[in-house]
Amino acid sequence: MLGLDLIFGINRRVRGLRRKWCRYRLRALRLEGSSKSRILNQLDSVEQELRTLEGQDLRRLDRNRIAASVEHGLKNVYNELSSKKRKTEAAEEKRISELETELREYK
Length: 107
Description:
By secondary structure, the protein is mainly α.
């Protein structure tokens, strides 16, 4: 019975959430600009709840509530990572920095 709990239980769900968190963190570290710090702050807040799930023995109701909160936070991070607005912001910041360097060279 213990083996089935590891496969189908809350531990599997928590491991999946941790894997997803790690993938999003790696994607966020590759970003540039202000969106990088914003997304990393969101991931840090989600990590605190994820650590609570991994480290403490909680009642089923509390585990499910915290796991749902983590899933919601990760969904927000995913939406932020895949948004077109973030991509245009990064392109604008890059263009501004290029213009500033050209201006310095011109002077």
